[in-house]
Amino acid sequence: MEKNSKRKIKTILLLLSIFPYLIFLVMGIFNLCYDSINNGYLDLYALFEPLTNVWHEIIGNLNIIFIILAIFCVGYPIYYLLDKSSKKKDNTLEASPKPKKINKLFVLYIISFLPYLYLIYSCIFGIELGFFSSTSTYYGFTAIIIAFVSLSIVPIYPILLIFQIIYTIKKYKIFSDIQRKVLKVTIIILLLLLIVPSIIHLINSKNNLNTTYNQDKIIIENYLKDEFGEKYYNNMEIIKPSRISTNYEIKTPLLKETFELSLNEKRTKITSNSFYEDFIDENDLNDKLSNYLNQYYKFPEYLELNSSIDKFDIKDSNNIDNLLKNCSYKIDSFNITKEDYNKEEIIKIIKDYFINYDQILTTYYDKSYLMFNAKVNNKSYASIQTIKDKYEAGSIKLIFSGYNYGDDYTIPNEELTINIYKENDTYSQK
Predict the structure, then answer these.
(1) Cα 201–chain centre separation
(2) How many other C-beta atoms lie within 10 A of the C-beta of residue 261?
(3) Which of 424, 360, 350 is nearest to 384 (CA)?
(4) What span, in angstroms and rounded, lies between the C-alpha atoms of 299 and 308?
(5) Residue 407 pLDDT
(6) Distance CA 74, CA 67 (A)
(7) pLDDT digits (tens, 9 = 90+) for 329-357
(8) How many other CB atoms sit within 10 Å of the CB of residue 157?
């Protein structure tokens, strides 16, 4: 009865030790599917991200309770297998294998642990991961996971693990005392060489991260104060990254999601700010601007502008209407909606537009070079180009697309220079 109770306790402890792995496996599979779908490629690192995040929290915060639980989850399954094998009765074995064969196989068994040195190397000296020119170097436990996965695709480590587990279960009971000591020493040394550098790296990484974050925070705070003013800056939060990076997420009530700031490599100034782009997208400001301009300039019903905001000052924008009135923008195209049309009629509409409405371009274009598109029924008709000197004389160049849309909507491919101030202009054609 006592033996059965001990066996049940050991089985329960084994189940408890492997239960977290099942949770991380489910979370990792979900994370892998989610990130791979969003990124458009298979992101294997996402499979292990939940496990590495927990590991970083455990070691980075030096929580003794969680460290003990981590050691239990890693060490107990190994102890269980070795203990189960060592306590099997060998009474049924009438004869032992020849020493030479056991020794040769045992030597091969010990040699099979050598590839794990690559994990140790990656842990200490780092491993690069990325695509094309976008790569990052990882160290510590994260590097171990990446190196293990990279040599599991082949698959080297899965074969070694299967061999080692089966050999340990089958042969451990007939190991000599020396062989058992060699095995235990080998495993302990490998684990120490993997765990100790990982802990040291995580502690150093956390210290470096804190130092870098505190230095970057000063630059970011000064930038946010100047860019957004005290009114909006006071409600902003700089989110501390999980690893050293030149990119920082900023939380603000102005956006549903965070926006991103980027520092230069020397970490001395802000090089990019995604707030304005995110704010425009989240509030559909480009569509609202086009509607505003179409209403403000009272375009004829057949003419519609397509515009996009180039720049605005959030400090001076109390509301969306005020922002649209004071922002700078660019004209991407204008669309002419007509069922029946010919080239001469379309050219007349373009000339009328330049004569009557061209003032709306002055906030963006300096007239040294102008180019945007004219569309008919939302299909590309011609690009419009002009140079300052020629424009002042009323000369603009039309480059017709030459597209065939397959629905009797065919435009000749040609270039045409016209004068917008001449009523009966003679077109120069190429």
Answers:
(1) 24
(2) 23
(3) 350
(4) 18
(5) 53
(6) 11
(7) 887 788 888 777 777 877 888 888 877 77
(8) 19
